[in-house]
Protein 1
Amino acid sequence: MKYEALEKINQEMTASADAMQAADQKFLQELQKNAESIRKTAIARPVILLAGPSGSGKTTTAFLLERFLDRWGVETHTISMDNFFSTMTPQQREMAAAGKLDLESPARVDVPYLNQQLQSIIACEPTWMPRYHFPTTTRIDQDWQLTRKPGELLLLEGIHALNPDVITIPEEMTVRIYVSVRTRVTNGETVLHPSRLRLMRRMLRDKKFRQRSIAETLSMFEHVQAGEHKYIAPYKKRASFSVDTFLPYELGIYKTLLDGELEAEMRHPMLRELQQMWDAVEPLTLEHVPADSLVREFAGDSAFQY
């Protein structure tokens, strides 16, 4: 586990307008090494499985990997497991609204349908791809068509992508990647657990894209974490690569964008460590954050279409 001193982060990120770009370049260089390894085994292992907990930056990491590979002439198709969720029944919708449905469970995925479509793509057959409409919790099964050509890669991202009970493709055909925040921020006395950075990412995303308050996101996160421990963490040891998506400037960005709403919830037990260092965090703005930065997945205005 890596540690970053908050004082050092403040000094470096406020010293120059180029500091944020430099931090992103460092992240991209590490990601490029993984992309190079994937390219070397592209023929034998045409399927990339990318998993990680909520707020880990799976989607942007997937798009960045695809961009590296595409630029090298290795055409890559990225699809999200979220689009293979089963349509909810009226009863399930009522349970979800009451907080009584396990939204992190792999049972939400239509596993037979997903693997059927994956086998079709691998066989280079024209394959209809679904799209899940989250506002109505319904799946559209024939939204667009994908035809993979021989030598091209398929990148599947989702929280259950490393679970062999969900993805039944032979392991020898896959490259497996686990994505999460691994770095801990410390002020010398208090250590901020990586899950709290992911929580802030989720707060920002929920606020901007799902019209949820900070308090609502906080109330859900305990269940989200329980799902991570039960359904995601047990399979991270299957990963060929592990990616740390921490960016040193993100705490400062979240301080600016979450503003007073987060401060109003600081008495929440999950925010105890954050409260103890929050006053010392230097606020930063999105002005110098690159358009392809992972932070933009949560803050908006990303170069990628999610």
Protein 2
Amino acid sequence: MKEEVLGHLVAVITIIIWGATYVSTKLLLVYLSPIEILFYRFLLAYLVLLLIYPKFKTLTNIREEFLFLGAGFTGGMLFFLIENIALKYTTAANVGLLVSISPILTALMAYYFIGVEKLSKKFLLGSILAIVGVFLVIFNGEFNLQLNIFGDVLALLAAIVWACYSIILRKIGKTHNYLYVTRKTFFYGLVTLLPILYIYGIEFKIEKLLSYSVLPNILYLSLGASLLGFIMWNIAINRLGVVKASTYIYLVPFITIVIARIILNEKLSHFSLLGGVLILMGLYITEYGFDKIRIPNSLKNKAFREKL
């Protein structure tokens, strides 16, 4: 029982940390490019992890190594790169909302590619509701291809990439220490980032990195969201199981919206807010169905319904 309580506590703390990353990245984009943010974030996290867990293992399974490469490419590089670019073109709240549908996408991909479970009616109904919510968030009540459409579509693409990462991580399994898995993910994330760094380059200025506006956010993203966040998420999964722990991801949009309004003074339209509510309702229904949704007694009364 104590382990489960610890798992819930760790999961909540992790989601709060991750919910603030969109705002922190948004602030950094004023001073650094998306590629620079990603490079500094994962380089620092990897170096610290190397100090914490310096053990290396002999390469014996090529297939498993390719899985680690895939995890590093999707979850350690591509997801965050797309997410960072999306934040340049749309609001932190929108990115948080759209990325939050990754659990639905993960379930769909798991069903079609590795056949883990049959898709239930509650899952399909919840998915439809969430997709309607995504549509409202993307078009924001302005049914044209302007405004934040590019950034919002990138955010949706980031959710798809995270789903791919989750499937790969599932295939890796629990055969290794979670510190080792996290470190290898960061390592291959950096390796797959090198070609992009070579093409676009990186402007290294120590005075910029040490500035009050940059250093705290870089430290937060690397040591907080990447290092501590990934480790704590692994602990939550070990204590609660992947399904129960993943439900906490649904809280990310609320946290992002609150922090974005407080720090960035971002405003959400009624359509975006409605879309966010529909996404969260859809995610809730996919997990719990309608069993836990209470219907007022008056609506259950036949005479009352006839009056309506």
Protein 3
Amino acid sequence: MATNIFVNLPVRDLPKSVQFFTHLGYSFNQHYTDEGATCMIVAENIFVMLLTEERFKTFTPKPVSDARTSTEVLVCLQVESRDQVAALVNKAIEAGGSAYKEPQDHGFMYGHGFQDLDGHLWEIIYMDSAPPTT
């Protein structure tokens, strides 16, 4: 059984991506950081490897998707409140990202999202601890 998750994402400008996600409040593990990659700490067992496109290409024989024109993955992070959803999306917009859709309220679940500097989609959700009723 897996113990950690490492999401690997290609980026065009690693220093700008680090600056963007630092503005959102994330930190980085310097042990796994060099000129071609960094390890963003999302939570105790959740990490995002931001890799320059050149480094990313060494891990796959397939072409790298342009996330600004197509969706390769939708990263969804759960936070502890509706206010945290709004705060994180607002910070992303302040740092140069953009909202890609309107907030969604499903009663038991509230979400909004942003597009980072490279076009990767990040969905931020709050889910009520009570299960939805049918």
Protein 4
Amino acid sequence: MTPTDTLEYAENVISRSDLSATVKNWQQQHGRHNLPWQLARDPYHVLVSEIMLQQTQVATVIPYFERWLESLPTVTTLAAASEDQIMALWQGLGYYSRARNLHRAAREVCASYNGKIPDCPAELRKIPGIGPYTAGAITAFAYDKSAALVDGNIARLFCRLFGIAEPLPASATSKLLWRLAEYYTPAHDNRIYAQGLLDLGATLCKPRQPDCPRCPLQANCVAFRTGRTAELPLKKARRALPQRHGNFLLSINETGLLLEQRPAGGIWPRLWSLPELTETAAESFKLDGEFKHTFSHYKLQAKVWCAVTSEAEAPYATATCRRIPLAQLSNYGLPAPIATYLQPYLTVHLQKAANGT
């Protein structure tokens, strides 16, 4: 498929009117209607949910979304919140830059738009942290206006429906998908249509074992007709991730847990983590345990060390380190693998505190 014949080819697969009608009809009968962010149609709710849903499954997001709105119910309260509060609420969702982008977006909305989230993609794209998909999602779901959107679900659906045999996430393929999305976006009832595309991708046109018999687009789908549903969309070959090693200090006592705020650059920026040790410094401590964690660009093989004497910890009582009472840890954002590693220790110490031992 070339740029010059894309839309003519696509119309031969399925017309604009047929795709819109089919998707909207299916969504109203079989789509998702009770997700928490669908209930109020509030632009702020849509903004929060869409940022959370980036690279995260719906089932995982729901409890985070509900806790977030309990603490930060409006864009104004988010703009006024501290970074520690935001990181604590986000803890466990990963990709923490999303939380910071959300914070920056709220501040910009309050500073430049008098606290009202814009209703068109062009204005939304001016706000830090809001990209093409999020701008389209807010326009469609909060305001029910015409705006194209392409995420992983829609990209997969379109690649199969139109038989696009180009790899994702290549730039040329992305441009092609956005061109199709813009062409097929209806002028009216875009909320239902956009939700229908997402629901089809999430519930039927799944990455593995798509449920083609239940799909309303089966008769039009090029991948189904040609037996390529398992093949499409094509993926770029992934390179093997390199492995890196890390060393962390565990120091926990009756006064609290020693944590270090990470620098702005590198992994877990500005989150509170166990202090990091150099290989040489780790030799002064006793090995407590290990954990593994996979980042987007490498795999971390980490060792956790504990001090035999308090004197050995002295060099780590720095300006960036703080001993935090265990009862206050929920106010601090910890990286998920660190929080998971600490959980057994925190349970024991909190039980001792409750028993007065």
